[in-house]
Amino acid sequence: MTTEQSAMERTSNDVHSFAKPAEAVAKHLDLNIDVNFDQKVLSGTASYLIENKTGTDQIIFDTRGLQIEKVFLGDSNEETTFELGDEKEFLGRPLTVKIKPDTKKVTILYQTSADAAALQWLNPQQTAGKKHPFLFTQSQAILARTWIPIQDSPGIRITYNAQVKVPKELLAVMSAENPVEKNATGVYTFEMKQPIPSYLMALSVGDLAFREIGPQTGIYAEPATIEAAAYEFAEMDKMLVAAEKIYGKYRWERYDLLVLPPSFPFGGMENPRLTFVTPTVLAKDRSLTSLIAHELAHSWSGNLVTNATWNDFWLNEGFTVYFERRIMEEIYGKEYADMLNVLGYQDLESTLNDIGAESKDTHLKLDLEGRDPDEGLTDIAYEKGNFFLQNIEKAVGRERFDEFVNNYFNTFAFQSTDTDKFLNFLRSELIKGDEALAEQINIEGWVYSPGLPEGFEAPTSTRFANVEEACQSWKNGEPAAKLNTKDWSSHEWLHFIRMLPENMTQQQMAELDKAFNFTNSGNSEVLAAWFIHAIRNNYTRADKALETFLTNVGRRKFLVPIYKALTATPEGKKKALAIYAKARPNYHAVSTVTLDEMLK
Length: 600
Ligand SMILES: [Zn+2]
Hints:
Belongs to the peptidase M1 family. This protein has 600 residues and is α+β, with helices and mostly antiparallel strands. The chain contains 20 helices and 21 strands. The strands form 5 sheets. Strands 5-4-8-2-1-11-13 form a 7-stranded mixed sheet, with no helix packed on it. A hairpin with an 8-residue loop joins strand 6 (82-84) and strand 7 (93-98). It is globular and about 80 Å long.
């Protein structure tokens, strides 16, 4: 086949999916699976209602590591032939099913492999309750295909129903309408009426309890965690109200949270109707809940209007960070949101440093062909995306910008958009030929150029000015215990720790630790930032806490910089490898893929 032909045949422009949705596309999924904790496999059927757009004789699904037993057509379940193509690294294998021009239904009998990357099977010891096993999925970016044969592209949307059979003492929940209590049969049914992209397919099974927060909101967690979670997230209803005030009605009916065991690799995952969240935000003081604002904001940017390919990831994350900060501003005021902006800017700077400010990977519009999207997605999409949108807001004023964003969400609701579509919409609905405005907005500089555009003004924070002052007086010799740190939030502490000198003496480290108890902090953000200094300055008094943290927590955002700091010296690397050998079974594949590479 010539390259010209293959380009023509590739009817989707998603380089991370084998599907050809312009020819034959799935519209609805009926999933019927058994969850087997002993063998660590899911097995059952994925039955699709399809649309054959061109009268083609085949439909293609994505699979990775799946065992396909049989495939049937129609309601009469007539067996058909299928072919699994060659395995491609991280993409898996295309499943090509023979269909007829009038085929409406395709049923695939399959089972997962024990090492399916989306699935993390936890033994009882790895849970808060220690009595029952636990399972959760992480489908983003292209891992849905490791637990369901599916057209695994964010440009394709399906509705779904599911029936899931689990051990009787456990509850199953999905990114769908959910049960609130266990039943005697262990069989649960689900319905997701709104069409969603495959990366939002989600399932979790465990000893779960439910607690209502508001009329539309609630929390699922292990019984051992539910009280702490209900306290920490008591303001989620307020957040929903604030979000609706800014960008209109929430379109998914309920908004619930599922608090996972600590090995969850991300802060949160915006599975529709049921955000999955790390327990590392349970700080006991509600200080890390901007993460919930972020996941909630995805109910508009991402879940409602979806990036069509992973190259357009900034449309999901840039909008979501922008919206998250607006929600936090609405509830806690501008000074609070300013702190988040400054911390975000610091993250962005360090990412630009890491990948090089001239790298094409710092463009908003990415080119991830030939790469695992999960490895190519960085803070750029989040923070540079956010600052681009803040820049537009600044140029046209908040009122006009909000009107535009509302219009954008309504126009593309339950659809996918790519960078071109968004930029065309921006030109036609907001810029409208105003050349001075176009220059201010600077699409070229933000979207198709590396680093940050010339003239970009870094965000500032008045609350952080106090922190900087305190840090400076400590550097000038003021005892740590005498610094004015009254009423500091997690964000102020994080800023303070980040501002500390790279090189400190044992006495300085011990003095700070004595005054502020960093090594024993119950706040994961504070701990993770402090450990970096402890490692750099060989502050061995933190060793035990560090090891406990690394063996319990699986959140990649914390693990990567800590392991990286450890590997900077030969002794540190030895320590890292010893801890990693112990901790690795507790990490999700999303984290081990990154860490295996770093520690090999
Ligand atoms: Zn996000």
